[in-house]
Amino acid sequence: MTGGPVIPEFGRGSDCVRENHAFCWGWVQDNWSGLLWPRLVEHVQLTAIAVSIGFVIAFAAALLAYRFGWFETPFGTFSALLYTIPSLALFQLLVPITGLTVTTVEIALVSYTLLILFRNILSGLRGTPPEVLEAARGMGLTRMQTLLRVELPLALPAIVAGIRIATVTTISLATVAAFVLPQGLGQPILGGLRTFFQTKFIAAGLLAVALAIVADAALVLVQRALTPWVRVKRVQ
Amino acid sequence: MSLLGVQYILGAQGAVFVDAVRFVADNASFVGGKTVEHLLLAGAAIGISIAVAVPLGVWLGHLHRGSFLAISVGNLGRALPSLAVIAFGLPLFGISFTNVLVALVVLAVPPILTNTYVAVDGIDRDAVEAARGMGMSGPQVLWRVELPLALPLLFAGVRTSSIYVIGTATIAAIAGGGGLGDIIVNQASYRVEGVIGAAMCVSLLALAVDGLLAAVQRAVTPRGLRAGAGGEPAVVAGSSG
Fold first, then answer.
1. Yes or no, beta carbons of B79 and A175 under 8 Å apart
2. What one-character-per-residue DSSP string does B198-212 give?
3. Is the ipTM of this complex over 0.90?
4. How would residue B48 be classed by pLDDT, with cut points 50, 70 and 90?
5. Which of A92, A95, A179, A206 to mutate to test the interface with B (most CBs of B within 10 A)?
């Protein structure tokens, strides 16, 4: 815990690693394929699963709330409650129920995506201008057709904006998951912190930040590709 | 009786939760002390963040300038994993209260700055025009018109950050922050029941503070705005820690 050259990882390798400098590029190269890359892949998987499941639940809930207004308050309150609980506490509270498993991590991660996705999808759907709905009805579209062809496409920018926030948030929270599951980039960060091996936690930390920024940028591109018509006026 | 009920509903696993409640009850003064420590750390971080971010956000919003800065800081802040920020500070400050405080401030500033900027920048220009027309000076417009109107959204940012900081302070225990996280990250000393008990306490703490801030937010909302705004925190930036 005190640092210094007694920890096994420090034994072999360059002077940089043995003297525990802030950042040793050589160590990163040596451990890229064996440690950092697999953790990065796991991190992407944890995030993708959580955002996908969260999206399905939030989408269904938002449709329900759009159709039946009374549903908004209970689901909104429930998801806000989950969102407020600190992540490390939620992970630990789930451990006695679902164990030190991926399930535990995913339940917690999904629960944090719900509030953001639900609010964004719902406000996107509600943002449909009344005259557009009027026109759709005038054209003889059924309720389902209106939803699929008018309301959802118009809500798309708000929906993708929600997915962006949820994804970046989940990437951040997934690092905390390392406290209960040795997966994802949180694992080398936490391992590095516990042994005070600086290169390890700095490299993994930088990777986590880079992943969040790249994911956010990629989703912006998806958003632009899906909604060419909004490019004229900026929608955030 | 109610504890037995919990045990019955959750089955065998319920025993852990019952033990956790017992742990908290048996060590009330210890857990209470950690809770106070937790609140002091979070309070200090939020206080510093408000002192930094609110004047800057108000100033930029008042001038309608620097939207790129204010919005990018918000987006970047969201992309910073809390655990990584705590890690980055360690080589600079070592395992210390300072490191944790700096990390928490770094994480808490973006939502407050972005919300403050958006709140002041987004005020109805007509209201500002009217105030000018009434002969108010720049500072008077700021104090009597812009700030009161911006307060609900500004406060929503403070609320988001506060909850984030309470959550992240839990993680910060691994870097010497103290507080309830000390118990949660030290299963070797406090065993499962201690970890679960502290997790319950920190969850209740976050919910209580959020409820309190929601009430304050309603109270600071000018009467004219109460029907529309307020209540819900704006998801402009930030996340649970």
1. no
2. HHHHHHHHHHHHHHH
3. no
4. very high
5. A92
